[in-house]
Amino acid sequence: MRSIGIDLHKTYAHVFELGEQGGGKHYRVPLTETDLAAFLQTLDQDAQVVMEASTSSFRFSEMLSPHAGRVVVSDPAQTRGALSKSLVNDHKAAEALARLLQSNFVREVWTPPPTYRALRSQVSLYLDLSRIRTQLINRLKSLFQQEMIDLPSVKLGPASHSFLNQQFSEQPGLRFYLCSLARTINHLHSELNQLEYSLGAWCKQSEDARLMLTIPGMGVIFAVTILAQIGDVKRFPTAAKLCSYAGLVPRVYESGKTRRYGHISRAGREDMRWALTLASWRGSGRSKSLDDFKQRLVERRPKMVASTAAARKLLAIIWSMLTNRVPFRDEDADLGARKWSSLKAWPEPDAWVLEVPKIKDTRPSTRPPKGKE
């Protein structure tokens, strides 16, 4: 069986074909429609292909799957460990992948289907825009602190418009800065609402999301953030495997009779750990089992250590719920019903968001408008 290693780049793929007798050949395939079609014609069911997980590898593997007998996306850390740092190049990387595949020593990663890739992208954008919005709100508050103006106790929003509209009327520079912040915050609010409606629409159709929402403190954003990373829960045979995937298990240093445990590994996506930690905090006082678990740890360990352990405990519970298709054991039926009723009342994403708008020139113009010279 032919083993083919591919080192994938933006505009080309470096390919190494390893024959059954040990010999092989190197060549490059430009990622154009014509050249890619020609490469696919060279594959057959007797070929097995491997590539590292990267930006476009999941889509590329889907394109190869109908033409090859087996397509594998490998863990990049394994390839880096198999090569010397001074000898890393396209030839060595592709050859190492092919030889690892031939020896059946490839650590394969899960290839998320397009639905989950889109879900991950939306969640990532939502969290990034949320962080930017928080930064801009802090800038607005900092402006008033800088100018020694007391902000009213009302929350920034429509109720604060009259106050904001009265500020800096005699200082055009600061007035423009304030208006620019307000316009940008409003735009972010609009985009975040549409993203939230889109994620909510997915939750309405997902049985996994419905189970997740039975957990006190678990909302739509937290549920989708966690589920987007888990994907198919069947790929984790035990809860410990899922916790390891999320980076919530301690590092282990072991040699001979010596074994030491360090901090958590922090493998996987940071967003998943963030959602689990906040969900465990928000659920405080609503789940006796989790509250008792946290209380026992807080009495003898630092608060942040107890918080991380509670996040891991919650993830183990989620694994059990999704595997056995059962709701949360300490479910508050009234709270869950209110969550689901509220979610069903959410509007669908506006039709206009599915029409790609014309993107304006991202370069700031240094020339005056026409007719103003």
Quick overview of this protein structure:
By secondary structure, the chain is an alpha/beta fold. It is built from 14 helices and 7 strands. Helix 7 (172-205) packs across helix 9, helix 9 (220-230) packs antiparallel against helix 11 (270-282) and helix 11 (270-282) crosses helix 13.
What does this structure look like?
By secondary structure, the chain is α/β, with parallel strands linked by helices. Helices cover 51% and strands 12% of the residues. The strands form two sheets. The chain has a five-stranded mixed β-sheet. Strand 6 (250-255) and strand 7 (258-264) form a beta hairpin. Helix 5 runs antiparallel to helix 7 (172-205). It is globular and about 80 Å long. The mean pLDDT is 89.
Strand count, sense and barrel status of the largest sheet are: 5 strands, mixed
Proportion of beta-strand residues: 5-15%
Write down the overall geometry. globular
Largest sheet, spatial ordering of strands: 3-2-1-4-5
How many distinct helices? Answer: 14
Classification by helices and strands? alpha/beta
Order of helices and strands: EEEHEHEHHHHHHHHEEHHHH
Distance between the termini: 71 Å
Secondary structure: helix percent: 40-55%
Q: Low-confidence runs (pLDDT<50, min 5 residues)?
A: none
Counted beta strands: 7
Rounded to an integer, what's the Rg over CA atoms?
A: 26 Å
The average pLDDT score comes to 89
